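User: Sequence in, structure out. Go.
Assistant: Echoing your sequence, followed by the structure tokens.
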Amino acid sequence: MKPARMGRAPIFFLALGFLPRVEAAETPEHDLAATFYVARTSSEEGWEDVFINPLGADYIDEYLAVGALSREYARSYYDGALKFEAEGQVAYHFGHEEFWELNAVPVVARWHRFPWNDRIATTAGFGLGLSYTTELPQFEVALEGETKRLLVYWVAEITAGLPNRSWALSLRLHHRSVAYGLMGDEGGMNAVGLGVRWQL
């Protein structure tokens, strides 16, 4: 199997986090958010295959339930349409294997402005960090040939909900990666998750 790949799109979105003149958030109305989602692991070789066609991708009987807490810490151009968050995640894997996964995501870039937001409030986010599992995931070894407990992590998310409501549906791509050999030769996984995000 080929190693899990990061690709060019995540690097592009990560670059948004290094735009100049980022200003500290001035106590936004809702600077905390909690997200809960359940995801299923894909057997596809690359994240692109899952991202482009999540319904048509192949999956295995490995699942995870994830609780995440994020805090907005900065906003950039476009009158606050682009904001930045930090997120921490705790995930429980279940299926043929049971173990915990801890993810630290210090940079999440989130875009808040879409032309249909007066009807469906929508955001799109991308975050990059690190992932650590309490056990070596054997399904990652089966899919990729080998893996490690500590890998690079990134998440892509789309949320959609009713305007002026504190909750929204969340669709996420949950990804562990060797990051072009930075963390090893092969390893990682992709999972597609559906859940709910609450502004606290």
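User: And one key feature?
Assistant: The chain is about 10% helix and 50% strand.
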